[in-house]
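Example record

Each entry pairs one chain with its bound ligand, flavin-adenine dinucleotide.
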Amino acid sequence: MNSNLPFDFAIENYPLAPLTIYGVGGPARLALIPRTVDEAVQAYEWVGQQPGKRTVLGGGSNVLIDDAGYDGIVVVMSELNALEVLGNDRYRIESGVDLNQVVREIMLTNNYAMVGGLTGIPGTVGGAIYMNAGTVNGSTCMLMESVDVIGPEGRKLIPMHESLYSYRGQTFCPRGSLILQGFFKFSKTDEPQQPIYDHYIERRQRTQPQGKCCGSVFKNPQGDHSGRLIQAAGLMGTRCGGAVISDKHANFIMNDDNATSADIRQLIEIARTTVKEKFGITLEEEVVYIK
Ligand SMILES: Cc1cc2nc3c(=O)[nH]c(=O)nc-3n(C[C@H](O)[C@H](O)[C@H](O)COP(=O)(O)OP(=O)(O)OC[C@H]3O[C@@H](n4cnc5c(N)ncnc54)[C@H](O)[C@@H]3O)c2cc1C
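Structure tokens for the complex follow.
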């Protein structure tokens, strides 16, 4: 370890592209990659005393890293991998656990309800809580009893309540704070969940392009679908450098062939301005920029 670095889990000039599904963007000036909740707390407290920018990364499935990288500190949460069975259908799940592992190993194994809400969403549990990831069938925060967060006001165990989350967002963890772990409470159901899982996996494979992307680039506007609007604007297949608006699902912008972050950003702006001009609707990004 470089003796100037604060922890044995701190690495300078750390490439971020391999940590994301898009696979684009430059390195972080400093990455902290804690392996336990205690290390994450130490990292957060240390970062709070440093000047400059800071951000958080989970599984990198919903982020776009700038080509220039990140001239600041990135706390990478994907190594916090403990999962504890607490009994009575309750679980303590640390932020770095793969969300698909939760669906397959906990929800399907026990036939817990709402598998359809989380099937096929990549990334970590922490990222899913932060984004309140989900589908029309439900979302992550609906399955939680409480969440352990460290932020500017210290570390808190926040009881989950429906007033604290909404479509692809929440209010209990401001950007830059850390979701350390979630306490989940599932419900057993009589309705078999495996067929529901199989159905949604098959549907994703049929309707969504496979490859380097962030899923939906834009949130859906009230009462409509961003994909429908972008398709109706005639933008499917539009290219910018190595990036393309998918011709399978218009709300997916793919890194098709060594795209840069700038290529993808340019397509996002084209989609936004064209949809605004043609339909008067302002699309808002779901993808998170790290720059
Ligand atoms: C093919 C594909 C399909 C997708 N389908 C869906 C879908 O159906 N529904 C859906 O909701 N999403 C979907 N997504 C988007 C994405 O998978 C989710 O948003 C996912 O929950 C993000 O988790 P992550 O760990 O990858 O977070 P990241 O992408 O790493 O980060 C996302 C945001 O969360 C923050 N964050 C991450 N971890 C933490 C933490 N521990 N503490 C504090 N902040 C944190 C980051 O700072 C960032 O702002 C899809 C993405 C892909 C590539």
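The two ends are 27 Å apart (CA to CA).
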